[in-house]
Structure formats: structure tokens, C-alpha cells
Amino acid sequence: FADYGCMLEILDMERLPDGRSYVETVGGSRFRVLRRGQRDGYHTADIEYLEDIKDWYQRVGSRSREHINRQHGSMPDKEADIQAPANGPAWCWWLLSVLQLDPAYQTTFLSLTSLKDRLGHLRLVLEYFSQS
């Protein structure tokens, strides 16, 4: 089985006359498999739960955060529908200004008319910064 997974929370269950069931679930806590095994014919695993590392904006010191807020304003709230605004989500443009990219590369972002393309480019930039 997979190296990563998530615990499922059962929301609803309906037993069928033939012994099968309809089970409605939602994903919960994520985990990584440390060791696999088998007991009484069932697969077992030792796991560790995963949690996100605190966001870089939360990790930066309060002086750095104050500087970012003074220079670029506070981080915009997440929109309920990221495709609703005509220019895409405000947080995307805010993040681009905070990252202080080369103006030529910023122009590339301005020219993209697809949110998917902008987020793809943004992903590449963030991957580059995370490796530095």
C-alpha cells in the first residue's frame, strides 16, 4: 500500500441487504507509514501523523512581519472562490510583490491570463526559493 495516507472519518453508513455497505467518509489527519506488517490476515502499519510546518509568514520574526506589512500591506484574506475576481486572488499578487522578483519575470505574471498558469509559475518560484 501507499507510503502516505489519511485517516477517514465516517460521516454516514448504510447497510445493504446483500451485506455490502455504502460508506460516506471525509479525509482527516494525514500520516506517513513507518513500518508495514500483517496480523490475523489484515494489513497493519506503524505510522506517524503529519502536520504542516508553520507558514513562512508566521515563522518570520515580528520585526520582519511588521516590515512586510508596512512595505506591502497585510496578507489579503483568502477568497471563497479564487476565480471570482477578474484578476485572480489578491493574495497571489501580494505574494508576488513580497517575493521581490526580477521586474521582467513579474511582467511574465502580468501577461498570463490563466490563473492555473500563474499558480504554476508561482509554484516554480516557491520551489526555487525553498531550495535556496
UniProtKB/TrEMBL annotation:
Occurrences of domain Lon N-terminal (ranges): 2-122
PANTHER family listed in its UniProt record: LON PEPTIDASE N-TERMINAL DOMAIN AND RING FINGER PROTEIN 1 ISOFORM X1, RING FINGER PROTEIN 127
InterPro entries according to UniProt: Lon_prtase_N, Lon_prtase_N_sf, PUA-like_sf
Any matching Pfam family: LON_substr_bdg
UniProt name for this protein: Lon N-terminal domain-containing protein
